[in-house]
Specification:
Trypsin Inhibitor V, Chain A; elongated; 2 helices; alpha+beta
């Protein structure tokens, strides 16, 4: 085999692998099914805290004894374990609260 053949073979393998991974890791599909998300919608009391949207996260005290709390910033890596009682506090780059969710 010559260099061009080997290069073409590796290129084809890389292209096919990328296509297959695109189907597996489609960013448009949520990891949690819609039915499960609907059941979790307010299992941690997130809806009651909507009035805090826009406040700085440092100005708010969340009682971690009442329920687990996780602060999720932009580009934060988070685990995918599902804990319905956990409150997720979503913040932007200026540490302002943008929303709440359970899980």
């Amino acid at each position: 085999m010559n260099f061009k053949t080997i290069t073409a073979a590796f290129g084809a393998i890389a292209a096919l692998s990328a296509c297959q991974m695109n189907g597996i890791l489609d960013q448009n599909e949520p990891l949690i099914p819609a039915e499960t998300r609907a059941a979790l919608a307010d299992s941690c009391g997130a809806d009651d805290l909507a009035f805090m949207t826009g406040m700085r996260v440092g100005e708010v005290e969340f009682d971690a004894r009442e329920r687990p709390v996780r602060i999720v910033g932009p580009n934060s890596a988070v685990t995918t374990d599902l804990r319905p009682e956990r409150l997720n506090v979503k913040i932007d780059s200026s540490e302002r609260i943008t929303g709440f969710s359970c899980g």
